[in-house]
Amino acid sequence: MADINSHIEIGVTTGPIRGSRKVYVGERRVAMREIELEPSSGEPPVRVYDTSGPYSDPDAQIDINTGLPQLRREWIMARGDVEDYEAREVKPEDNGQLGPDRSGGVPGYPNVVKRPLRAKAGQNVSQMHYARKGIVTPEMEYVATRENLGREMAREAASGGESYGAAIPSLVTPEFVRDEVARGRAIIPNNINHPETEPMAIGRNFLVKINANIGNSAVASDVASEVDKMVWATRWGADTVMDLSTGRNIHDTREWIIRNSSVPIGTVPIYQALEKVGGVAEDLTWEIFRDTLIEQAEQGVDYFTIHAGVRLPYVPMAAKRVTGIVSRGGSIMAKWCLAHHKESFLYEHFDDITEIMKAYDIAYSLGDGLRPGSIADANDEAQFAELYTLGELTHRAWKEDVQVMIEGPGHVPMHKIKENMDKQLEVCGEAPFYTLGPLVTDIAPGYDHITSGIGAAQIGWYGTAMLCYVTPKEHLGLPDRDDVKVGVVTYKLAAHAADLAKGHPAAQLRDDALSKARFEFRWRDQFNLSLDPETAEEYHDQTLPAEGAKTAHFCSMCGPKFCSMQISQEVRDFAAKQNQSSDGFIMAQQSGADAAEASRKAAEEGMREMAEKYAEKGSELYLPAEE
Amino acid sequence: MADINSHIEIGVTTGPIRGSRKVYVGERRVAMREIELEPSSGEPPVRVYDTSGPYSDPDAQIDINTGLPQLRREWIMARGDVEDYEAREVKPEDNGQLGPDRSGGVPGYPNVVKRPLRAKAGQNVSQMHYARKGIVTPEMEYVATRENLGREMAREAASGGESYGAAIPSLVTPEFVRDEVARGRAIIPNNINHPETEPMAIGRNFLVKINANIGNSAVASDVASEVDKMVWATRWGADTVMDLSTGRNIHDTREWIIRNSSVPIGTVPIYQALEKVGGVAEDLTWEIFRDTLIEQAEQGVDYFTIHAGVRLPYVPMAAKRVTGIVSRGGSIMAKWCLAHHKESFLYEHFDDITEIMKAYDIAYSLGDGLRPGSIADANDEAQFAELYTLGELTHRAWKEDVQVMIEGPGHVPMHKIKENMDKQLEVCGEAPFYTLGPLVTDIAPGYDHITSGIGAAQIGWYGTAMLCYVTPKEHLGLPDRDDVKVGVVTYKLAAHAADLAKGHPAAQLRDDALSKARFEFRWRDQFNLSLDPETAEEYHDQTLPAEGAKTAHFCSMCGPKFCSMQISQEVRDFAAKQNQSSDGFIMAQQSGADAAEASRKAAEEGMREMAEKYAEKGSELYLPAEE
Which of A30, A85, B386, B405 sits between 20 and 30 A of B74, alpha carbons compared? Predict the structure, then answer.
């Protein structure tokens, strides 16, 4: 970890992720990581998807006060459809109203853009708009290269997954990306005022993505730790980050985060709007909300969670639930609706919001304000009533070529998960689904990264495009740095398990490389290929700390004398040395014990021959090499 | 934690699990835990399944040197079919051959039974044998009461699960238990020389169980920490414990564990047999193995993992795998088969083993020596060839009324999990399946409790009866106390998620109680109802350490000013106060957006009325009580 000298002291973690180096691939210089294997393996480096941004590049100049390089600036300007203009003035209430000291310890960002970009009058700068006009943008090209990762290598590999109707190509072309975005099956969240992003796609036919939530709250946190958490979360694999700050200094905190983030940033604008009215939901107005959208659009937020599906008639449906309304945005809108006895202003002004979205290319993340907060409430009428409205809104946004994804639950027992996915696909026209977990039981607070990881892996398999992480602190407190890492790694493994099960053509390459390393006792390769090399090595060293043990051909479970991995190696060596393919023993497609028995007899025949050969050669498991 | 005064210093954790008290239910005095809720809740205590044994009973006298009370002794003797006899003499090699100091720091157990029990000549003392004769044993009665937990309360509750063909009753009767054991669909592992056990059942139509592995190894561990881990694992929910010790002092370590365990103990006898021949697999003989079985049978091991399915012809099938043979028992037998070019002596002597099993009522756990050790090897010919043989052996054991369960993988991607379950049910005649995970990806060493917890929850849902835990140290090192707890809690939550998804009639009671506590800000109830109250409270306190915060009506995520839970409560209060049932807003079974729209209109109508009433009453969300 390196502490960066900056006007304010914000330490972020930089430098290569252990055992890997940054590479830039193709014309668009797409960032990836390459994990070099030990020469003894005779295998090429393994390329892995990389969300860590310039921070893991030792050649990158990192200055938190300047922000990241603006990779996309040129692409945006080259399209000729944007203009710069005088930014909305920052108001005291943008940072909360808790007394005269509006800084609250958070200095304003030193490098604020004074003239943000927006679409010229009558123009639409969304990736969906370009896609539908048949234009392949540099962003789409970047995504294609990024998603292709390993696919060339894997072309031969049979995927064999069950994709539940997804259409995962054997090779991702820029044209494929364009088509997916045009159909609304994928989004590339990329505010034109956040040119620091490395483009990425969220969609069922791409790799399953994960989101990490950060954000200060009314009772804890500060900007330094939030920026650090953002960099930390992306280092371990967060594809997007949501800044869910509440309380003070929301505006300035967000500016620090966006300027230093190479991944798309999402927010829930109603949180900030609520702070502007002193936390009194019923005092919210469309005008205050709209002003907040513009404020955040100019800063560069890439997607907005908008709880426009929490409609007045649905609110009482939550009254008979075990846990009512657990979405913060949902309950704000429910309270507003009840207090005014009016339809939600988000719903009423949806088309006005869409106009803002298309002027900056902000994607909708249609919020599930009525998601179930407990197993008892899963898949109930309130939840699905809202989902139907989200479907209606999806089609309204699509009419204006605005990108949309749909947020999903929550707490759902396993047997009710698939219904969520199926309904969402049907009602929302295959717009990407973005779910929180779901948690498959309520009884394990402190372990809800796991209860939700179980649900996340399943719903990702069924077709969810992005999984919102849950940390061990869920329901209990604010995640610290360690919690963020555990949440991210848990969700990376869940997303990867989903990619494997869907039959992603290249997903298994990393599993195979790691398993081979494990089998051959290349401990360092095993650590480096894992999602969290540091923890893997630390755990190993707790039992066998000696440096020599990392190259030793045994592990702590069996000890030096006997090792099952070693014996399997002997079995393999033996089979190979006998120059006899094991094909002679291949059991034909087994349909029952009879086939097995027949096959077994054939195998026994072969074994007798082998036994003789083995005896001839002196009955040694280790035969001299090059015999 | 209390350190017990004993001849050797073995500290084990005693005393009630926080927030709960031990209760003994019914004629058989079945141990359970009751979690008392805050009086404000107005709810009865929640009864939960309890594996912690006498250790969590403050009235129990715990003396590690004496062992636990022999709950079942009387039941066993009353059947009149056993005799005691002179125990086999303990030999030096029983504790390993690594030098003259055979104690290696482990003293012999002070209270060894000199005259163990066995079936009288011609008798069979297995629970399956009694069951098939129509006898309902006290063990079956105990199991019925234990499994019934909460079912009376839940009779009204619709289960709504998807059980994949399981036959879970709304109430478990002793006769139901007998029938399941007679059919071979469930086992009650209960060696007559381990009368300290509290009987439990493993079967698809009972609660999903979990196993924790402990055991010293050639490079680490000692007896004190293994006994402590056993008690610790059962405290958090392990239904059985396997002692997988290798290296020195295996015999004495096991004695300490069994005498102090109230849960069934399983072993892999081939591990000890291997130590007896100095770790040289090819020196193993049937005679040494048989002697080891008798040795362990007399000590009271409740189930034996026997890798009798690793047959000579299958061994070469593993040669072309990415990770060969990863089962330690499987590789021992593979090496033996290759070295001798003979069929496995376990397979050849299977019926001889069965004779021993029925003399002590030891259950088979037919080992999956050829389970896949990587995603690449899942569901391959070696694995399924062995499974077919396990099916054959199951029926052979059943002919002699010996209880059987079947071990399963391993590493399996999600889309291949169900095939494992389906094949196992078909081939093994519904004998209980007992799986290790499976891990759904290989790329997360350090997090394999999670990669495997995902697979475990799914395969448990599909019908697996017992899930063998995996700790965070899997593949890397030996689990310590903390790892054991994390592994157990992870598997408890996976097993519970499976029970929920299968539609177990009472499973959701605990979820509902916890969620209600969460919704009502009964923090202490939320902690106490969770699988790990200590961790839940610790995490909460990291953000809000003040004692007052535990009763405060807010949490750290939203802060005191705004809280979504609080708003939902207001929504509910409002609906209730209006004396208007929310039924008026119930959306009929939704078949599509049209139905939703129609229903929405009806709901709007109702809302207008409510709005008027609300305005009449002064537009307050909190109305005065008892208005």
Answer: B405
Q: Using alpha carbons only, what angle is made at residue B321 by residues B317 and B326, rounded to the nearest 5 degrees?
A: 95
Cross-chain residue pair B376–A621, CB shorter than 8 Å: no
Classify B211 as helix, strand or coil: strand
d(CA A371, CA A433): 14
Q: How far apart are CA B462 and CA B456, in angstroms?
A: 10
Chain A CB contacts of B555 under 8 Å are 475-477
Domain ranges of chain A: 72-508
pLDDT(A603) > 60: no
- DSSP assignment of A98-153: SSS-TTTT-PPPTT--SS-EEEPTT----HHHHHHTT---HHHHHHHHHHHTTHHH
- Pairing of β A186-187 and β A202-203: antiparallel
Query: A4 touching B, CB under 8 A?
Result: no
Q: Is A314 on the interface with B (CB under 8 A)?
A: yes
In a mutational test of the B interface, the residue from A440, A483, A544, A612 whose CB has the highest number of chain B CBs within 10 Å is A440
Q: Smallest CA–CA separation between B61 and chain A, in Å?
A: 31
Look at chain B and count its residues. 627
Q: Give the list of residues 6+ apart from residue B335 with CB closer than 8 angstroms, or none.
A: A567, A570, A571, A621, B281, B282
List pLDDT tens digits, range B105-160.
677 888 899 999 999 999 999 999 999 999 999 999 999 999 998 776 665 555 57
Computed over every residue of chain A, the mean pLDDT equals: 87
Q: What integer is the mean pLDDT of B59-73?
A: 94
Task: Tell me what pLDDT residue A220 has.
Answer: 54
pLDDT of residue A547 exceeding 50, the answer is: yes
Query: Tokens for A1?
Result: 């970890």
Judge contact between A394 and A406, C-beta under 8 A: yes
Query: What contacts B606, CB < 8 A, 6 or more positions away?
Result: A313, A316, B580, B584, B585
Provide, as residue numbers in chain A, all residues whose Cβ is less than 8 Å from the Cβ of B542.
473, 477, 480
pTM comes to 0.90
Q: Report the alpha-carbon distance of residue A561 to residue A480 in Å, rounded.
A: 43
- pLDDT for A618 equals 43
Closest-CA residue of B relative to A456 is: B454
pLDDT at residue A277, rounded to an integer: 93
pLDDT tens-place string over residues A425-466: 999 999 999 999 999 999 999 999 999 999 999 999 999 999
Q: Which of residues 595-614 of A touch B (CB under 8 A)?
A: 596-597, 599-600, 603-604, 606-608, 610-611, 614
Task: Compute the distance between CA of residue A170 and CA of residue A54 in angstroms, rounded to an integer.
Answer: 29
Q: Mention every residue, 6+ apart, whose C-beta is less than 8 A from residue B563.
A: B553, B554, B555
Each residue of A57-112: pLDDT tens digit?
999 999 999 999 999 999 999 999 999 999 999 998 898 755 444 445 677 888 89
Torsion of CA A68, A69, A75, A78, to 10 degrees: 120
Cross-chain Cβ contact A317/B585 below 8 Å: yes
Residue of A nearest to B413 (CA): A501
- Cβ separation of B444 and A493 shorter than 8 Å? yes
CATH superfamily of B72-508: Radical SAM ThiC family, central domain (3.20.20.540)
Give the per-residue pLDDT at A106: 74
Interface of A with B in 97-126 (CB under 8 A): none
Strand ranges for B418-540 from DSSP E: 433-436, 466-468
A475: which chain B residues are within 8 Å (Cβ-Cβ)? Answer: 518, 526, 555
Which helix or strand (DSSP H or E) is residue B214 part of? Answer: strand B209-214
Helix (H/G/I), strand (E/B), else coil: B555 = coil
